Amino acid sequence: MKKPILSGALSALLLVACATPPADRAAPLSRVIVEAESFTAQSGGQLVRRTGRPGTSGNVSISAWDHRDHVVEWQAEVPRDGKYAVVLRYAGGRSWAVYRDLQIEGAQLPPAFSRIAWTPTGGFGTEAGQWRDLVVSDAQGRPVWVTLKAGSVSLRMRNLGGDGADGSGNLDLIALIPECAEFTPPLAPAQQPVMSRAAPKTQPPQADGQRAHATLNPGDLAALEHLRDWKLTLPVQGAGKAWAEEVQQPALGKLSRQPWFFVDEAGTGVVFRANAGGARTSNNTRFARSELLQMDTAYDGDRQIRYERRGWDLADGVARRMFIDQTITAVPLQKPQVVVGQIHNARDDVLMLKFEGDSPGRRSVRGALQVRLNNAKDVYVIDPAYVLGTRFTVEIIAHAGRISVLYNGQVTAVKEAPVRIETRDCYWKAGMYVQSSSRNTSAYNNGFADEDPAEYGEVVVHALRLSRP
């Protein structure tokens, strides 16, 4: 019998599941893997079994699941009564999202199962990196736990079509992960697909303390390399201050502040969230942020000997790089625009990595990912159809007064682009800088309605690295 591959999202979910085990630890539950090619029935279409696809369990998967109302059924053996999360490993090569609904015999399923979004993964699974593990989650991105009885149960999944011409999507497996599962080590980080959080949010953010805290602090994640070289601005008013709270080291290294800055519940990254009604940094900005700002630091071992905001000269001939692996998961309703990476000088935005949703006022799920240079005077679209919930990487290289940007490892139109504004006193920024405000008078001038203060932008940062010249 072939051994299923356990990818990063699956193994991370196992760790979360075991963080709050049931009382009976003497008999731990095992995950249930349902291979897609082991389907027992179908109607409305004809699946094709594909072999030799890298990154799949046993190198076998199913394809030709293209048409609306094509229904596929499987049987699963549930080992014992308990609560289970559901993970789907899929590949989607269209430029639009496609949808499935899932029914499990004998289970009362919440609305999250009635329209599961499969966002594009970059291909139909001919490469290992095109497969993604999607944990069926609620509107806040938390895994939905389903109560199942022991025994044989049927699973029935229906193609609901897609936002484009068809609902094409390939499937490798369905996994049922119990509340406490046996842990299997993940693959190497470069091979780990991410848990998709593509479902657009439908509820305002919860207040502090309403959401279960993750077991890690952001400073505990090695993926956020050199977090000690940053300070954090939060969209809340600082104690005794008129403006937004700033958190510096060493407090930042131990900070977890729900719902603005915390490790996501799968342990795959750090969530940065900023709301439209959040506190601002000064009168010079209309927008709130949950954002890291680069500091000039020096350490003697673990002892901090310098920690100050002092920038660098982009034209000094030193090559500097910032690499971010991230997933944009939410944007505001009325003005669906967020910034998720910057180079800033003392006054202006040298570079902004910006997402602009295509459906203002109607809950955008896709839009254009842009690089804006020279105080937004030069605009380059690096992905015209980015879908919320899609994980991507960006590497920004600043050298000798010019900037280049790699998107998912590929060269973009931003190649040796000249910086035509002040190059001195520059610094990096990463996280969430929401571009809408309930107090934003310019929003009216640009044709956007006033934003509800509770609306927010959110990004999950899976890795953040700076070169260190």
TrEMBL record:
<feature type="region of interest" description="Disordered">
    <location>
        <begin position="191"/>
        <end position="211"/>
    </location>
</feature>
<protein>
    <recommendedName>
        <fullName>CBM6 domain-containing protein</fullName>
    </recommendedName>
</protein>
<dbReference type="InterPro" id="IPR008979">
    <property type="entry name" value="Galactose-bd-like_sf"/>
</dbReference>
<feature type="domain" description="CBM6">
    <location>
        <begin position="32"/>
        <end position="177"/>
    </location>
</feature>
<keyword id="KW-0732">Signal</keyword>
<dbReference type="InterPro" id="IPR014895">
    <property type="entry name" value="Alginate_lyase_2"/>
</dbReference>
<dbReference type="InterPro" id="IPR005084">
    <property type="entry name" value="CBM6"/>
</dbReference>
<dbReference type="GO" id="GO:0030246">
    <property type="term" value="F:carbohydrate binding"/>
</dbReference>
<dbReference type="Pfam" id="PF08787">
    <property type="entry name" value="Alginate_lyase2"/>
</dbReference>
<dbReference type="InterPro" id="IPR013320">
    <property type="entry name" value="ConA-like_dom_sf"/>
</dbReference>
<feature type="signal peptide">
    <location>
        <begin position="1"/>
        <end position="26"/>
    </location>
</feature>
